[in-house]
Amino acid sequence: MFDNYIVVTGTRPEIIKMAPVIRRLMAGGLRVHFVHTGQHYDYLLSKQMLKDLQLPKPYRSFVLRSNSPAAQIGEIMSKLERPFRQIAKKSILLIQGDTNSVVSAALTGVKVGIPIAHVEAGLRSYDWRMPEEHNRRMVDHISDILFAPTETSRVNLEMEKVHGEIFVTGNTIIDAVREHLPIAMKKSKVMNNIRFKEYVLVTIHRAENVDSPRILGEILEGLIRSNVPLVIPIHPRTQERLRANNYSNKLASKNIQILSPQGYLDFLVLLKNSRFVVTDSGGIQEEATSPSLLKRVFVIRDSTERPEAVASGIVKLLSISRKHISSSIHLEWHSDQPKRISIRKSPYGAGYASDKIMRILLRKNEINKKI
Ligand code: UD1
Ligand code: UDP
Question: Does the residue 341 lie in any domain?
């Protein structure tokens, strides 16, 4: 039986996707121990997100000193061990996704003897260059409960013979959009600052896209040459690489508006008002399938762990080639008959994944009580 629900987040998307779960657990009167590892520490990627998603201040958060992946994972593990041990008895650990914080929390949990529930289990890109692919595979194999968003992710887990129990729940990002878009449309004033009447929303931050100057240069050229209005909230990793490679001035164009990372409510409004999206983000591929958004998404990547979004006609992959990127954006912008998206339901659920997760956890607790 679990008395304590330890929820660990580390980055912007984890806060967004865990928010509906945390709120359900708290509304159910359960004892939630919310920890933020501090992997994302900038106000706009952490505190602003907590505020926009109506979450309480974490009861523990850390200031991390290391910046290489292995050192970061080691540091988070050593910082989590003590608080985990203090409440290990009758606890369950809930984590979401595939970041370094997630793998650190899971490894600490398994060593301390806390059962692990992994939200968004079973995604696979089969691209071994991606740190996220290493992380999600490790975490899935040491989790006791796997909340797979779709049937495809369930099959991935079954094929790999994971030891935990699998439940298909939908993705909590759809809950977040369902709950926050109406608030965002009322509250956000972000459109007052946007220079264009119509625009393409762009986000790029994946390590394999921005860490190589050659690849980053190719993507930037593709975006610039598309010659259409672009609104680009810049992720700190990308900001750093633009600066390090002297690329910032490449984006100085009357067709391009650069923004700092946006709060969740403002970002939802930017998404809602965009013509379409160009990104390498995982979460945005899912969000765009929400019936209240339904935006076409060009994903600058060779593969995606979200094949459901491709099958639904929302996501199209673009290879890392300036020509392919610029011509695809240009064509979509100028198309007289933009490809219609005709899905009624998101492949990631109707926005009640967190309710399902809560019910499964409560049912498990009832069963454990009886044993
Ligand atoms: C991380 C996740 C990625 C996720 C992304 C969400 C891993 C391996 N990567 O990538 O899966 O898609 O978060 O946005 O866990 N930085 C700041 N301020 C911050 C955070 C980071 O300036 O608040 C800068 C630092 O220079 C840091 C770099 O960005 O070295 C990269 O940050 P890191 O958290 O390691 O990875 P992300 O690229 O953010
Ligand atoms: N997002 C945001 N502000 C931004 C860019 C993205 O709130 O400036 C949100 C977006 O709506 C989505 C999530 O952040 O829910 C995606 O996070 P990110 O792209 O950083 O990571 P990924 O999903 O690729 O792991």
Answer: no
Q: Is 238 in the pocket of ligand 2 (CB under 6 A)?
A: no
DSSP string over 56-98:
PPPSEE------SHHHHHHHHHHHHHHHHHHT-TTEEEEEESS
Asked if residue 132 has its Cβ within 6 Å of ligand 1, the reply is: yes
Ligand 2: nearest atom to the Cα of 176: 15
- Judge if 16 and 165 occupy the same domain: yes
* pLDDT > 80? residue 1: no
Q: Looking at the DSSP assignment, which residues form a beta bridge with residue 117?
A: 94, 145
| Tally of CB atoms within 10 A around 343 | 14
Least confident of 179-188, 301-310, 357-366: 357-366
Does residue 41 fall inside a structural domain?
A: yes
Residues 233 and 122 in one domain: no
Number of residues in the chain: 371
Q: Is the pLDDT score of 369 beyond 90?
A: no
Whether residue 211 sits in one domain with residue 308: yes
Find the catalytic residue in 40, 118, 180, 205.
Answer: 205
Q: Is the beta carbon of 302 within 6 A of some atom in ligand 1?
A: no
Told to judge if 205 belongs to the known catalytic residues of this protein, a careful annotator would answer yes
What is the number of domains present in the chain? Answer: 2
Q: Does residue 10's CB lie within 6 angstroms of at least one atom of ligand 2?
A: no
